[in-house]
Amino acid sequence: MNNLKLQALCLLVEFKKLAPVAKELGITAPTVSFHIRSIEEEYGIRLFRTNAGGYRLTEAGEGVYHYARQIVQLQKDMNRFIENLLAGHIGSLRLGASGLPAHIFMPDLIHQVSMAYPEIRISLEVKTAPEIEHKVALQELDFGLIMETKQENTALHYETIGEDTLVLALSPTHALASKTHITREDVLKNKLLLHTSSSSTNHFIEKWMDPFQPSTYTIELDSVSTIKKMLTFGKNLAFVSAALIEEELKSGLLMKKDLQDVTLRRKIQFIYPKTRLDNAIDEFVKMSIYEVAQRLKMSSVLT
Fold first, then answer.
1. Which end of the chain is more exposed for a tag (fewer CB within 10 A), N or C?
2. Residue 187 and residue 236: Cα distance in Å, rounded?
3. Three-state DSSP state, 16
4. In angstroms, rounded to a whole number, what is the distance separating the alpha carbons of residues 91 and 6?
């Protein structure tokens, strides 16, 4: 089976329509349809059902897609390896991280790797934890550092390298600033700033604030910097890691309230594909991550 057919299958799962798949592959929509039918005929199964929302995988299609996307990604990895080889590069390292790990781990880690392997190409992608999990599972990224999410991906290894506690951040001018014991009811009287609906932070907030009505009591923002700036106005609250507001705490722009609740404690996890073949650079990355984690624990940034 040629790779183009598998690419067509994977893209149709993503786009759910023939036209955007055809545009992506530089072929016609009937050709996309032909490729899908040829896979179905070869295996004697139906891959998709159609409805008003477009193409949806059947149960059999789910299984085929699981393997097809791995094959497509392996082809991409091989192409990238050949490109690096022909360009004279020793290799590359693709890292991914969600907000807090990107802030406290990645500068030190990238520095160590670049010093030990000066010829290697290093890239870092910062997205929400679920997005990083997805990309590492597809091997679009080599390693990830994330805050724990609701459900682990079965294609990945997860190693806990530390813990972090969410604190309630607010301005010293906020009405709750002088209050010693803050309750859920106190928080619900204020607008709560959230860092995107898909952020791993939010399900910890939902557990603490149960019952929770996000549409009524929250403002969703896709920038930690914006959240911190809005907090200084003295009208909103946010649950964040103390490490993300370290400078603001030192300068007095913001203050924190530690709510002493175990439901606000979260694991920091190092993730990589179960199928990954280790090499010298991989071992160095793993060793460096644990060294950085140990230093952060000693400096009380992590628990």
1. C
2. 9
3. coil
4. 27
